[in-house]
Amino acid sequence: RCQMTGLYLVTEDGLGVAGGVADALRQLGARAVVLPAALLSDPAALRAMAEEQRVKQGPVQGILHLAPLVAVPNPATEEEWHRLIRHYVLSLFHLVQGCAVDLQAAGQAGQGVVLSATLLGGAFGRNGRGGTGPVASGGVAGFLQCIAAEWPSCAARMLDLDESLSPSVMGQRIMEELLYGEGSSEVGFPQGERTVFEVAPV
What we know:
The protein is an alpha/beta fold. The protein is 41% helix and 18% strand. It contains 6 helices and 7 strands. The protein has a 7-stranded mixed β-sheet with strand order 2-1-3-4-5-6-7, sandwiched between helices. β1, α1 and β2 form a beta-alpha-beta unit.
């Protein structure tokens, strides 16, 4: 089986996927820490915990942003929309910013990765189905595209899962993409079927 090393920070989700993924990482030899969802809307506390883990366990090799795996209603107010953006999108920005040196160094060694998972129907909303996840989490894909462009050595992988999948199967799909995915990618699982999305010229 594959062996993994280094520290992975995993953001807590609402379906229980993060705990299983962290366990799978540890079984493969990596160190994994689940960052509580309660910290995601508090940039200072989130970065402080990430820094604490870096000091204790060594440089960060990967960030797995699984927080958007949660069923939430569409925001009814502008204030609620901004709250969701802070919680599900900007939290990843603050984590990546705080671990930038580690991630770029790991990328140079061919091991750095930032992976996100959303719950937008399995096709990032392209098929007319938005899924049950927070619609604001669609912004995560745009941020990861920036990472892929600015840090080409660090893999930026975007996954969109169908809510019909069980949490355990979601965890399996995430680990498969983490272990066997190539470079930066945008992969969805509409009705559980792996689908790779690529930009094509018009």
